[in-house]
Amino acid sequence: MNIHEYQAKDLYRQYGIPTGEGFPAFSAEEAVEAAKKLPGPIWVVKAQIHAGGRGKGKFKEAEAGTGGGVRLAKSVDEVRTFASQMLGRTLVTAQTGDDGKQVNRLYIEDGSAIARELYLSMLVDRSTGRVAFIASTEGGMDIEKVAHDTPEKIVTFSIDPASGFSAYHGRKLAFTLGLAGDQVNQCVRMAGNLYRMFVEKDMSLLEINPLVVTKDGKLICLDGKMNFDSNALFRHKEIVELRDLTEEDPAEIEASKHDLAYVKLDGTIGCLVNGAGLAMSTMDIIKLYGLEPANFLDVGGSASKEKVKEAFKIILNDPNVNGILVNIFGGIMRCDIIAEGVVAAARELGVKVPLVVRLEGTNVELGKEIMAASGLKIVAADNLEDAAKKITAEVKKAA
Ligand code: GDP
Ligand code: MN
Fold first, then answer.
1. Ligand 1 near 67 CB (within 6 A)
2. Three-class SS of residue 236?
3. Which domain holds residue 122?
4. Would you state the pLDDT for residue 63?
5. Which residues pair with 228 in a beta bridge?
6. What's the chain's average pLDDT?
7. Residues with beta carbon < 5 A to ion ligand 2?
């Protein structure tokens, strides 16, 4: 789960991590109110969307010269102007895709006088099983370019969870970032607090780009992209409260309500599968036979008839779907239950696209009989390859 920058900055504050002073705003009026509470003479108006690259982003319907998603205002009046130019408009950045994202929230921050822009991120490094710090002196808006052209300028090191974070790590980080004097102490303190926050809040990713040194020598986290491990959210109600559903795909929200693991993709073949591994191989074999999956959908090991129906609904709501492949291995789950679910859903929802079903496992014969006796146009397949061939052929026939 992701959160907005202004929410991330509240977390920094809770952990004593230095960041700018600022307030969220949901209207131009609120933006003005926020600006009045800050000293000036520079205010930063920042679009709040769950995507980076806002500074270099462009608004879709903007009149000429209205700038990107991060703008420096020199007066409260200018804050009002920038706010009304951003709110309700669609911001397209390198990370949003062509559709962009509508800006519904802003963050108004006290402008910082920047001397240097650095890069710092933390993540769970699966290869070492540790939390890693990734740092570079080349912070700012072009870190992807740095990673591509001069990867040696990006330094990674990890923390042994048994011994935890120590001042030594902070000094190593400070050295990597080219800090000296009191900034080393600031860095040691900040990195320790970042590590504590990262672990306590079960984050999977934290990116601070830029981490800045101000002209008066202060280290400040000027941006914050945070991602939390969704498997640990049950113990972080305070984080779940920060969820912004408007940033998420409606079909994925609906799926999560029914405890279905669903990820929308760009293809045309809807997939209904039990088990993540089987779902992945189903997607692979669809591609092998020349088509593209419309989604990843894992109904889980113990899906009920109702759950299968909800899964069908989600797939059928995707206008790109022109064929459905059901691939179930009945281990814990019985094939006859699945067959009943498929038949009920196909009947009730009026499935008009070709439907191929491959069942295997417990009570498979009974399952096949139920489908055959339903009178519905369900194509039965014997194995994974047969299923992929059949859905490809059926979709071609229907076109
Ligand atoms: P992003 O483009 O979505 O990553 O948004 P950022 O929050 O990183 O802002 C983009 C850029 O705006 C930063 O790299 C800075 O150069 C600039 N910026 C952000 N806040 C300030 C500020 O307070 N003062 C100044 N001078 N520049 C800022
Ligand atoms: Mn940034």
1. no
2. coil
3. 114-240
4. 61
5. 203
6. 93
7. 209, 223
Task: Answer yes or no: 195 catalytic.
Answer: no
Q: Are residues 135 and 228 in the same domain?
A: yes
Task: Compare 147 and 237 and report the one with higher pLDDT.
Answer: 237
Distance CA 175, CA 353 (A): 61
What spacing in Å lies between the alpha carbon of 1 and ligand 2's midpoint? 18
Q: How would residue 97 be classed by pLDDT, with cut points 50, 70 and 90?
A: confident
Rg (CA), the chain: 26
Residue 262: active-site member: no
CA of residue 10 to ligand 1 center, whole Å: 18
Decide: 77 and 23 in contact? Cβ < 8 Å: no
Q: What whole-number distance in Å separates Cα of residue 127 and Cα of residue 290?
A: 33
Same domain, 95 and 182: no
Nearest-angstrom CA–CA distance, 366 and 181? 76
Q: Are residues 134 and 105 in the same domain?
A: no
Residues 234 and 254 in one domain: no
Specify the 3-state DSSP secondary structure of 344: helix
Q: What is the pLDDT of residues 179-233, one digit of tens each?
A: 999 999 999 999 999 999 999 999 999 999 999 999 999 999 999 999 999 899 9
Residues 272 and 391 in one domain: yes
Q: Which amino acid is at 281?
A: S
pTM: 0.82
Task: Return the pLDDT at 330.
Answer: 85
User: Does 54 contact ligand 1 (Cβ within 6 A)?
Assistant: yes
Angle (CA) 78-81-85 rounded to 5° is 140
